[in-house]
């Protein structure tokens, strides 16, 4: 776009297997696979306005993607 953008991609995976000593019972097996992505843009994107803060100590950032606890 104009530079300094960041694309963050996270991949997750897990596997769990539980078995019992009794052979008549069935164990539990579970899988989890996931991915998410975020695009960080180092400026405010507020359509239809293009707000630019020149020489400011405040560095605005716009994030596109799933909400996070950051």
Helices, strands, pairings?
Blueprint: E1 6-18, E2 28-41, E3 62-64
Antiparallel strand pairs: 1-2, 2-3
Q: Sum up the overall morphology in one term.
A: rod-shaped
Tell me what portion of residues adopts beta-strand conformation: 35-45%
For the report, how would you describe the main beta sheet? 3 strands, antiparallel
Number of strands: 3
**Strand order, sheet with most strands:** 1-2-3
What is the structure about, briefly put?
The protein is 0% helix and 43% strand. The chain is an all-beta fold and 70 residues long.
What does it look like?
This protein is mostly beta strands. Helices cover 0% and strands 43% of the residues. Strands 1-2-3 form a three-stranded antiparallel sheet, with no helix packed on it. The model has no long low-confidence stretch (mean pLDDT 78).
List key phrases describing it.
70 residues, mainly beta, 3 strands, 43% strand
